[in-house]
Amino acid sequence: MGWPRDFGPARYPRVLPVWQRGPMCRSIVTLRDPEPASDDAVRAAALQFVRKVSGYRQPSRANQATFERAVDEVARATRTLLDDLVTKAS
Fold it and tell me: Half-sphere exposure (CA, 13 Å, Cβ side) for 78?
């Protein structure tokens, strides 16, 4: 698969395809274990995900509410996923 016509290395030389960027983040851990993940662990993973996706380690005051809402929504979705997964142990 190549670059779209108006978006490519000639126009944006610093942009790399996803497969050339490397892993998303080395410190993301698997939360699905025999023991349920704590709410703190789920929130920390959600915060890390939103930081990575948004590109902000700490958002500006103008973006703080949106950032926090995204963290809450990702944490809620993560908790639902972990609670609803069917595993051999369940």
Answer: 25
